[in-house]
Structure formats: C-alpha cells, structure tokens
Amino acid sequence: MTTVLIVDDQPLQRFGFRMLLESQDDMTVVGEGGNGTDAVRMTSGLRPDVVLMDIRMPDMDGIEATRRIVASGAHSRVLILTTFDLDEYAYAGLRAGASGFLIKDALPEELLSGIRAVATGDAVVAPRLTRRLLDAFVDHLPSGGQDSEASADPAKHPLLSALTDRERQILTVIGQGWTNAEIAARLHLAESTVKTHVGRILAKTGARDRVQAVILAYDTKLVRPS
C-alpha cells in the first residue's frame, strides 16, 4: 500500500486528488495540508511514501518545503505539481530534491502511475524534458556552491572522484537526456548493465534518483546548457 500526503492550498483540488487516489486498491491518503509548513510537519509525523506537493502556496511554498523534507533525511519522496512543463518553479523544486514533477492537468492515469513510480524510487520526468528544463533555467539559479577548480574540471569534483571512467561517461549522457535503452544501444551495452551502472552512480554520488543525477551532471559541468 502506497501512502500519500496531499499538499495543496486549494481545498477542491485536494478533494479531487483524494477521491482519485482512494479509488485505487494500492493507495491510501494519510493526510492533507494547505501549505509548505503543513507539508514539513505532516511528513515528519505521518512519514508518507509520497508527498504530492503543489509548488505555489502561501506561507511556505512547495520548493522550501521540499528542501526541508529532503534535508531531514525523510524517506518520503516528493512529486511536484506545476502548471507549466517548463516552469522555473518546477526546476527549483527538482533542485531542492523532488523526485519529479507532473503538470496539474495530467490525465488521472498519468498521476497514478507517477505516484507509483516515485514510491518505488523512480523519477517522474521524461529525460528530455528534464534536459529542456535545466537548459532553460540553469543560468538563473545558484549552481550548488561548487568551487572554481571543480567547476573548471569536472574530473576533480569530489562527488565524481569515486566514479569510474565508464560511470562518468554514463552520467554525462544521462545528463544529456538519454534513456537507458538509448545508452545501451549507443554504447553497445546490455540494458541490464546500464541499469547496474546507473545504480552504482546513484550510490556513489548520493543522488536520490535519476533526476538528481541529471542535476548533478549540470552542477559538476559534465553537461552544459545547449
């Protein structure tokens, strides 16, 4: 059973999400919040598998709430809801540690599949959309505090030092928006081998999921805006 916390400042929106989620045999809504403060407090107390997080809310927005939830070490994963696919707020939410985002007018089955994916540790953003989002906004927000030497030479970045040459290569093409199938085909590897490499990259860098790996590739200058 996947437990979900719904956070949105619109009561009618929360009601609609609850009705949809509770129609599913494998999901249950453990709580509802109306702002980021509620999200942080209720995540700590309820420990949901997934926080369905509106991004623009009064008091504390979804970006800051996501940042605090991730910083707390909670196992809960955040799925952001946004109005536009290329949205600076969505980008900031991913940088804060969200595992993905969905457009608010997504089809019900897209929302359900997104929640299920996030609950199992997957990321819910198409690789190419992640790339487009980062290309659009990476120059407008802080890069994460890398020092100048590490930024000039990605190989010297401490988060990449434990990676093998092959793992660094795969992280680079993940950042460029390649799927596992594309990596396997273009690098002449079995897809299962690619999945193993991706798992090792996440473990070695501390990235929570594929979205965070893409952001890491940008932050360490392995990939630059096109």
Automatic annotation (TrEMBL):
UniProt keyword annotation of Phosphoprotein present: yes
BP term (GO), one: regulation of DNA-templated transcription
Molecular function per GO: DNA binding
Sequence positions bearing 4-aspartylphosphate: D54
Positions of the HTH luxR-type domain: 156-221
Keywords, sorted A to Z: DNA-binding, Phosphoprotein, Transcription, Transcription regulation
Keyword DNA-binding included in the entry's annotation: yes
Response regulatory domain location: 3-119
Name of the protein in its database record: Putative transcriptional regulatory protein YxjL
Phylogenetic lineage: Bacteria, Bacillati, Actinomycetota, Actinomycetes, Kitasatosporales
